[in-house]
Amino acid sequence: MKFFTGIVLLLLLSCSSHDGDKSNAATIVQRSSSLTQKDTPNPYVTIDISPMDMIYYPVDFPKLKMSKAVEGSPVMRIIYSRPHRQGRTIFGELLKYGEPWRLGANEATEIELFKEVTIQNKKIPKGRYVLYCIPKPDSWTIVFNSNIYSWGLKPDPKKDLYKFLIPVRHSAIPIEYFTMAFEDSQTGANLIMTWDEVIARLPLNFK
Fold first, then answer.
1. pLDDT at residue 22 above 90?
2. CA-CA distance, 48 to 115, in Å (whole number)?
3. What predicted TM-score, i.e. pTM, was given to this entire model?
4. Is residue 121 classed exposed, middle or buried when 0-12, 13-18 and 19+ CB atoms within 10 A define those classes?
5. Residue 108, burial from CB neighbour count under 10 angstroms (0-12, 13-18, 19+)
6. DSSP H/E element including 60
7. 3-class SS at 40?
8. In the β-sheet with 76-81, what is the strand arrangement from edge to edge?
9. Backbone phi and psi for residue 94, each to the nearest 5 degrees, phi listed first
C-alpha cells in the first residue's frame, strides 16, 4: 500500500512539475515578446529615411589603407545624405529648375580636398567646402561654398567661392536613391551625380 501511495505521489509531482515548466515557458515567451515590442523603436534617435553616406577617391580608400595597399591621405571625400525618389518626378517638380539644391538631404553636402585640384582651369586649394548645385534641364551649375557645418542649404552668394557649369544627360533607367560616386579619368577623376533619370559629371584634375 505504501509502495502504491509513493507511486501516486511521484506521478502527481511529475504532472505538477510539467505544468510549472509550461507556465514558466509561457511567462518567458510573454516577457520576451513584451521586451521585443518595447525595444523595437529607437529611444535615442528617429530612423532617417535619407541615410548619410561617404565616398572617397581613391575609391574605398579606408579599406585600401587598412590592407596597406595605399599610404598617406586620400585625394578627396564627400559626405552627403541620400534621398530616394518614392515615385516622384524629381527635376522640374520636386526640385525646381533654377533654384539651389543641396545635392542630397539633411545637412549640407560637404567635399573635402586633401590636395589641390583643378576644375575647368581653376585651381581649388585643399580644404573643406559645401557643395551644391543649381539644376536646369540640360545643365547644372556646381557651386563650392565656404559655409561648412550647416544644416540644409541657405545659400549666401557672398560665401560662394567657385562655380562650374556642366552638362547633364538623361537615362532611360531611373535611379531610386540619389547617388554620388567617383570614377577614374586620364587626368584625375570624375564626380558622378545621378538621381531619377539625370546623370551629371564633374571632372576634377590632379594628375
1. no
2. 32
3. 0.77
4. exposed
5. buried
6. none
7. coil
8. 52-57, 76-81, 110-113, 127-135, 139-145, 160-185, 188-205, 117-119, 122-124
9. -65, -45
- Distances in whole angstroms, Cα of residue 138 to Cα of each of 9, 38, 93, 199: 90, 50, 15, 10
Question: What digits encode the pLDDT tens for the residues 43-92?
Answer: 887 777 888 899 999 999 999 999 999 999 999 999 999 999 999 999 99
Render pLDDT for 99-130 as a digit per residue (tens, 0 to 9): 999 999 988 999 999 999 999 999 999 999 99
Identify the CA nearest to 120 among candidates 163, 57, 85: 163
pLDDT bin (cut points 50, 70, 90) of residue 40 is low
Strand partners, 175: 196
How many helices (H) and strands (E) in the chain? Answer: 2, 9
User: How far apart, in whole angstroms, are the C-alpha atoms of residue 169 and residue 102?
Assistant: 20
CA–CA distance, 72 with 61 (Å, rounded to integer)? 10
pLDDT tens digits for 126-145? 999 999 999 999 999 999 99
| 3-state secondary structure at position 163 | strand
Judge contact between 113 and 131, C-beta under 8 A: no
**Helix or strand run (H / E) with residue 1:** none
Number of C-beta neighbours around residue 58 at 10 A: 16
Peptide bond into 83 cis (omega under 30): no
Count of alpha carbons within 13 Å of 79, Cβ hemisphere only? Answer: 13
Domain boundaries, the chain: 1-43, 52-205
